[in-house]
Every structure is written in C-alpha cells, then in structure tokens.
What does this fold into?
Amino acid sequence: MIVDSHLDIAWNALAEGRGFNGPPAQGYLISRDSLVAAGVGLVFATVFTAPRGASKLLPKNPFLYDTPREANLIGRLQVGYYASVGLRLLRTRSQLRAYQRAWRPGKLAAILLMENADPIESPAQVGEWAQLGVRIIGPAWARTRYCGGTDAPGGLTDLGRELLRTMARHEVILDISHMADRSVRESLEAWQGPVVATHGGARALNPGQRQFEDRAIAEIGRRHGIVGVSFYRGHLRSDGHAGVADLVRHIRHMADIAGDPAFVALGSDLDGGFGRDEAALSSTAGLGSLRNALQRHFSAHDVEGIMGGNWLRFLSASLPT
Ligand SMILES: [Zn+2]
It folds into this structure.
C-alpha cells in the first residue's frame, strides 16, 4: 500500500468547504476516492490550526484562532470530522499490524498528526489529545507558544521543552516540519524518542527556511526516523515548475544524506494550501509515474519502501504497543 504522511483533510473540509468523501473538488487532487484509486492505504491526517496573525494566506478564514482555547476547539472539531466521515484512526502497533494484514485496495485508514501544537492548551493536556488519537505532534507551523516556526526564527520555549517531555511520556512521535532551525537543533538535543519530518523538501536543492537542512535529514537518518517529501512545487524548486523528476531528485538527495532510502518516504501535503496548479503531480494517478521514475534510481525493494513500506516499518516500531 502507498502511505502519505501529510494531508490536511479535516481543515480542507471544515475551513475550505472541500469534503473528503466522493471525488476531489474542482482544481484539487485529494478525496477518499482519488486516494484509494491510486492505491493509498494509509494517510497521516492532520489536526491543523492557524493563528489569525500569521496567516496572510488565509485572511478571511473563520477557522483562525486568537487564543489556545479557540485552537483547542478547532482542533477537536477536526478530530470529530474524521469520525464523521468514517476515517478510521490507527492507534497502536497491533492495530497497524492487523490493518496491514487485512488490507486490500479500496481500504483507507489514518494516523492522526497534529500540525501546530497550540491546540494543546498546556503540556499537561498531551494525554487528552493522545486519548483522542493523536500519535504525532509537530510543535510548529508559524511561531507557536512552543517554538519558532516557518518564517519565525527562534528556539524552544520553556513550554516547548515541557511539551517534549510530556510527549515522550505518552509515546507521541515528534515531527520537526515547520520548526525554525534553532528549534530543530534544540529539540533534537532534548529528544530521545522517534523523530520524523512528515512533509518538506531538501534545502540543499531549494534554498529557504521551510526546507529541511542536510544536518536535520542526516540526524533523522541516524535515528532511523523518516523524512517525507512534499509534492508542493514551492518546496521543490525556487522557480515553482516542479514535476516528478524533482520529486525523484529530492528523494535521491534525502536518501543520500539520511544514509539509506529506508529513511525517506512520501508526505505529499497535497491540497494543503495549494491546488492542482501548484502540485508536482496533476492527479493522484501520477503516483504510478513517480513509482516508475523511482525504479530508475533505486532497487525494487527501496521503491516499495519509499512508496509506503518505510512508514509502515517505522510506525510498527514507534506507535504505542
Ligand atoms: Zn505544513
């Protein structure tokens, strides 16, 4: 099965009016139908929230938050959305193993990923979110109360350090995507648990703070985590004209820096603030052409890993038992 480690499904439905069941909305690529038709069996479905101040992209959106309480409510609404469309959340290693054994094309399940930790009103609340199904937390998007983020330099706050300690106690996985460089450095120093970068490009190939530094990619590889390549053109090329060849180029670079293709996978972020016009694929059926292109650079075993097997192996060792 193909695994995609970043889709803002609930945000797109609730804040943008593009529902999940049925075909994708005009100009967009992601829906249950398009994912299962492409052979996707597992997605990381996000609880994504955006603060009012840092969202030039979404100026009129009613789902922006001013306070942690509002972020909390918007986050909970998204968890409710996943239940309402029958997207099953896998919570444990044994649930993942059973799902994998029984999987056949047409079935889809999700891992719940919180992008931006502000809905966690205080670190003591991590347990409640874990209870709701959250298994991975990315502390940043823009700056949060926990750390610096995209276009918002800075390190971990005291609250951020406390968040990491509480995440470790609840066996939550750390996602460094969107964290500012100093926050990445400081959290990798403080963090002993499983670590991933669910969605992004390689900064060595496309300069910009949102892309992953080689030293972060290398450290994730050293710890046997996973780096997921994003399909957003802006993450792949500065001129924005990225296609399948650029995805392959980033994957090749990430595999070289991480030390093995086993530490690289797909985190498309498709429809997350961009549509078909800004995606490196024109439809999810393009995943087939990506697989073919990867076969010219990697062994068949490595290609199956990148398309999904690497995430499954990582999760089967990192989810709670
Ligand atoms: Zn993101």
About this structure: The first strand starts at residue 2 and ends at 7. Residues 115, 177-178, 199, 269, 272 surround zinc ion (CB under 6 Å). The chain has a mean pLDDT of 96.
